[in-house]
Amino acid sequence: MLINSAVYDDGRMVAEPALDDVSEALQAHEKGFVWIALRDPTDDELTRLQHELDLPPLAVEDARKGQQRPKVEEYGDITFAAMHLLETGLDGLAVGEVHVFVGPRFVVSVRHRSQQGFLGVRDRAEREPELLRQGPGFVLYALMDAVVDRYIPLMDDIDGALEALEATMFQPGQDRQAVVQQLFALKQQLATLRHAVTPLLEVAARLHGGRVPVVCKALQEYFRDVYDHLVRLQASIDAARETIIAATQVNLTLVSVEESLVTKRLAAWAAIFAASTALAGIWGMNFDKMPELKWVYGYPMALATIVLVSGALYWRFKRLRWL
């Protein structure tokens, strides 16, 4: 579906051509460029754009199929970039994609499986014409910067959830299974974020310094800023990953400690009842030559002995912190 189609000349929008009229609009404005945004496009829309702008077939095939790893590829003077769009869903992070074709006189963004649009990026650029005067390369930077900026709140949410778990982890009566499940869910979200950030870090590194695509040469300092943001995100991801591993190990250790305490308590109570059972068994053997059986104080004495032995064992286990 076509979201926007606009031709910009000297930083100002001068036309809004249909997909079949893009090449004519560019001919009418020789110094301008066109910025087209599509969401979940049909094969027909991509085919028409491919014909109008002479897009590379392999890149068009990638944009048609989706399911691409973040990357940047060059086809002559056309650059193709793929990025992941992440948003919070019911089962963790939902993954969408945006594919961007950048040529000397056009930018085409193709969005798949995501509700996150880039109208805010376009509005900001249109309010500041001096930005759009820098051409299609700046639009690629603005889109990439917007994608990376949306990763930061997701990372903050993961960090906040980890801090909340750490604060309650040592509270008595904590459901350890629930904690492990939450840690595993956070680990999955972190892995999804890492799969988006790490390859994009390589992409940003290729767009500043060294051999840079022609459309990005004048904007290397902008892409270096995106690269810096991604480096900080990568560091946060690594730190959070280590925290999750440590928290999982601590939680499993606490489970082992709690199980050990339960075992000690059961063993202590078993020893107390075993002593009582042993004494009861001795006096319950019914031999004829047992003087205690005929003694008037035999029964109270037996009860007192059982209570005394049990009390002594309870006191001892209490001191050992088994009870």
Residues in helices, as a percent range: 55-70%
Please count the beta strands (DSSP E, at least 2 residues each): 7
Measure the end-to-end span.
Answer: 69 Å
If strands are numbered along the chain, what order do they take across the biggest sheet? 2-1-3-7-6-5-4
Determine Rg (CA atoms, Å). Answer: 35 Å
Order of helices and strands: EEHEHHEEEEHHHHHHH
Tally the structural domains.
Answer: 2
Q: CATH superfamily assignment of the largest domain?
A: CorA soluble domain-like
Structural class: alpha+beta
Name given to the CATH architecture of the largest domain: 2-Layer Sandwich
What would CATH call the class of the largest domain? Answer: Alpha Beta
In the predicted model, the low-confidence regions spanning at least 5 consecutive residues are none
In short:
This protein is of the alpha+beta class and 323 residues long.
Describe the structure.
This protein is 60% helix and 17% strand. It folds into two domains: 2-255, Beta Polymerase, domain 2 (2-Layer Sandwich), CATH 3.30.460.20; 259-319, Methane Monooxygenase Hydroxylase, Chain G, domain 1 (Up-down Bundle), CATH 1.20.58. The model has no long low-confidence stretch (mean pLDDT 86). By secondary structure, it is of the alpha+beta class. The longest helix has 64 residues, at 220-283. The radius of gyration is 35 Å and the shape is rod-shaped. A seven-stranded mixed sheet has the order 2-1-3-7-6-5-4, sandwiched between helices. It contains ten helices and seven strands. The two termini are 69 Å apart. A hairpin with a 2-residue loop joins strand 6 and strand 7 (106-112). The protein has helices at residues 22-28, 43-53, 57-65, 119-127, 129-132, 136-168, 176-206, 220-283, 291-294, 298-319, and strands spanning 2-9, 12-15, 33-39, 71-75, 78-89, 92-103, 106-112.
